[in-house]
């Protein structure tokens, strides 16, 4: 309010302020309103279109998959199928009519051999197929993209387990569905969206990222991205004005590892983008016109007093009296104040000189105080000249390396660090002698006078001086801290019960091998304790812990020279073997087989199941090797499941334990 009351239209400051505020406020508000409205509308339209499109595809495909599984589960529940009777093949042929979309329906035994089928296809093994393995685990299973052995067409396979009266898995019912069925299923949706004016692309991917169905064509070519995160960035919003982009949405299908990717071209919403663009152009045009008006508005007021000032300062013979004789009323308030300030400056020069001398004296005194503070600091402080020699170092910095000040100043600064430390410092010093990003803060290694390795926390920056650029930094010895942190990191990779490596170490090792460029052969052994839950429930967790510890010691003794033993779950272990000798690994596997069932004192006999998978890096996916070893372990467990529990029943009966 005080500023408004003192505002004078004769003041140049007031006039300029009014013009600038009006020039910027009107177009700026219009621009913000237009941009915000169009931006929100675009986000909402794209979001609604992509979400509804993805939901239509998802609903249609999930209903189809659920229907196929339901039909197969009805077949698997038939008594003839459960008992694998001779009329099973006749039943499958009769029920084939319920699967008009299927090429064949077949019954597969536990060994993975096709026993009966609706098209008389027999004695074909599918034991190595992942969908068969998953079904044998008691799950609904759906394959990825396959090639039919019958018609050489692209197909997908549904599989459900067959349970006996005692709820044991006795086999698997499978049906083969041509991919063309899925194309027919999605065709009405594609036609509907295209007729509504959407430029759309759609792809259905299996768990191995193979394209099962795509529209248009037989492949999808749009880039995977999340349209919500893309549109949340205003810069991406502006790019839509000039470039066409595919905005993508991804959804997962229930009960499968399949993914749906659908994308809509931003050109479908180009009218909104153009409207926003023209709003920006209009705002800039208004702003430009108002700025020109403001310039011509103040030009006449500026030109007259500037000519008066030019005449005063060009005539060096004029003194203070001549300047005081000029009538300030001829000028604006600001220029009148300027003349008053010039008179004060001239009359106070002598006073300023004396004040400057006093300030210099105080500056020299302050320099002595700060130098004493730096010299006696508990933190090492140093300064390097442009030629990379010591310009200054305090006593603490010299003592970190075990030198005196005199010994330190004649040494090259880089000689105080290891090769890694020297490279770290050189990497942040630019060609001009400055520091990248203005400062460097890191822990690097140095060399003590006695030859020991020390860890230093370095903070390095630079200082501009009249004769060049100086590097200025501080240093602190953190060797004890680094040793403590490394000990903590070591403990974080160990299992507290067994002392072997934990799952975190296992996953990081797999990740390192996945990006390794060295050619190496890899084997993963997955081991599972068969009777851990039985021991925990019947005897107690102390007995269960004993089984876990005995398993860890057994694996360490067998694979001591071959690989790293890791506990990756409650009753599951894994061993990573790298660059092993085949004969040594085979001997270790034989020892592991013979060790299953060994008893120790009065403890529960140790029964284990294991699986082995092999691969090479680079080339093979480490997660895929681990999955194959895990599947092999489950196959091994299923092969002796009944025998193990019969032994445990005898063990429990002999000791009076409820089985």
From TrEMBL:
GO cellular component term, pick one: plasma membrane
Alphabetized InterPro entries for the sequence: Biofilm_reg_signaling (IPR052155), dCache_1 (IPR033479), GGDEF_dom (IPR000160), Nucleotide_cyclase (IPR029787), PAS (IPR000014), PAS-like_dom_sf (IPR035965), Rev_trsase/Diguanyl_cyclase (IPR043128), Sensor-like_sf (IPR029151)
Topology class, membrane: Multi-pass membrane protein
GO molecular function: ATP binding; kinase activity
Keyword annotations of the record: ATP-binding, Cell membrane, Coiled coil, Kinase, Membrane, Nucleotide-binding, Phosphoprotein, Transferase, Transmembrane, Transmembrane helix, Two-component regulatory system
Domain of life according to the entry: Bacteria
Signal peptide residues on this chain, from the entry's feature table: none
Record localization: Cell membrane
Residue stretches making up the GGDEF domain: 520-647
Major subcellular site: membrane
Gene3D superfamilies, alphabetized: 3.30.70.270, PAS domain (3.30.450.20)
Transmembrane segments: 12-37, 275-298
Domain annotation PAS: ranges: 366-438
GO terms under biological process: phosphorelay signal transduction system
Coiled-coil positions: 349-376
NCBIfam families: GGDEF, sensory_box
Record-given protein name: Diguanylate cyclase with PAS/PAC sensor
Provenance organism: Thermodesulfobium narugense DSM 14796
């Amino acid at each position: 309010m005080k500023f408004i009351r003192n505002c004078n239209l004769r003041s140049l400051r007031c006039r300029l302020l009014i013009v600038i505020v009006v020039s910027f406020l009107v177009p700026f508000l219009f621009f913000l309103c237009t941009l915000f409205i169009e931006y929100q509308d675009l986000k909402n339209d794209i979001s609604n279109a992509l979400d509804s499109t993805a939901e239509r595809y998802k609903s249609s495909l999930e209903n189809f998959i659920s229907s196929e599984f339901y039909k197969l589960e009805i077949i698997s529940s038939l008594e003839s199928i459960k008992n694998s009777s001779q009329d099973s093949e006749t039943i499958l042929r009769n029920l084939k009519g319920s699967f008009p979309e299927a090429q064949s329906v077949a019954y597969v035994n536990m060994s993975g051999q096709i026993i009966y089928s609706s098209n008389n296809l027999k004695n074909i093994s599918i034991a190595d197929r992942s969908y068969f393995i998953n079904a044998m685990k008691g799950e609904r299973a759906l394959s990825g993209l396959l090639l039919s052995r019958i018609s050489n067409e692209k197909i997908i396979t549904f599989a459900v387990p067959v349970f006996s009266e005692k709820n044991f898995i006795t086999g698997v019912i499978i049906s083969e569905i041509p991919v063309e069925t899925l194309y027919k299923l999605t065709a009405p949706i594609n036609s509907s969206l295209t007729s509504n004016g959407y430029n759309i692309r759609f792809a259905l991917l299996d768990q191995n990222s193979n394209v099962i169905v795509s529209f248009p064509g037989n492949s999808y070519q749009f880039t995977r991205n999340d349209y919500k995160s893309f549109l949340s960035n205003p810069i991406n919003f502006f790019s839509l004005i000039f470039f066409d982009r595919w905005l993508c949405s991804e959804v997962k299908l229930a009960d499968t590892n399949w993914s749906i990717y659908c994308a809509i071209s931003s050109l479908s919403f180009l009218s909104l983008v153009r409207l926003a663009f023209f709003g920006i152009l209009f705002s800039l045009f208004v702003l430009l016109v108002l700025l020109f008006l403001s310039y011509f508005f103040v030009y006449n007021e500026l030109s007259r007093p500037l000519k008066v000032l030019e005449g005063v300062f060009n005539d060096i013979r004029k003194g203070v009296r001549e300047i005081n004789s000029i009538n300030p009323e001829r000028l604006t308030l600001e220029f009148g104040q300027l003349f008053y300030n010039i008179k004060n400056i001239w009359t106070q020069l002598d006073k300023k000189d004396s004040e400057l001398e006093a300030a210099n004296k105080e500056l020299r005194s302050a320099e002595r105080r700060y130098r004493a503070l730096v010299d006696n600091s508990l933190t090492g402080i140093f300064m390097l000249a442009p030629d990379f020699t010591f310009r200054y170092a305090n006593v603490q910095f010299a003592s970190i390396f075990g030198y005196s000040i005199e010994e330190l100043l004649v040494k090259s600064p880089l000689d105080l660090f290891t090769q890694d430390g020297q490279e770290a410092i050189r990497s942040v010093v630019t060609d001009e002698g400055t520091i990248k990003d203005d400062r460097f803060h890191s822990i690097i290694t140095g060399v003590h006078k006695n030859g020991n390795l020390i860890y230093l926390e370095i903070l390095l920056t630079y200082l501009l001086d009249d004769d060049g650029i100086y590097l200025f930094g501080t240093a602190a010895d953190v060797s004890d801290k680094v040793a403590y942190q490394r000990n903590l990191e070591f403990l974080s990779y160990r299992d507290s019960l067994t002392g072997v490596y934990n799952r975190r170490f296992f996953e990081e090792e797999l990740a390192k091998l996945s990006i390794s460029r060295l050619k190496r052969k890899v084997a993963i052994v997955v081991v599972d304790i068969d009777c851990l839950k039985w021991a925990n429930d019947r005897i107690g967790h102390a007995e269960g812990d004993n089984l876990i510890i005995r398993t860890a010691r057994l694996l360490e003794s067998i694979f001591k020279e071959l690989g790293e033993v890791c506990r990756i779950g409650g009753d599951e272990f894994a061993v990573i073997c790298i660059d092993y000798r085949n004969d040594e690994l085979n001997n270790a596997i034989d020892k592991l087989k013979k060790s299953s069932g060994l008893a120790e004192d009065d403890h529960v006999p140790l029964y284990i199941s294991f699986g082995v998978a092999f691969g090479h890096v680079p080339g093979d996916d480490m997660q895929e090797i681990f999955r194959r070893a895990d599947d092999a372990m489950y196959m091994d467990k299923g092969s002796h499941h009944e025998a193990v529990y019969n032994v445990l029943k005898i063990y429990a009966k002999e000791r009076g334990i409820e089985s």
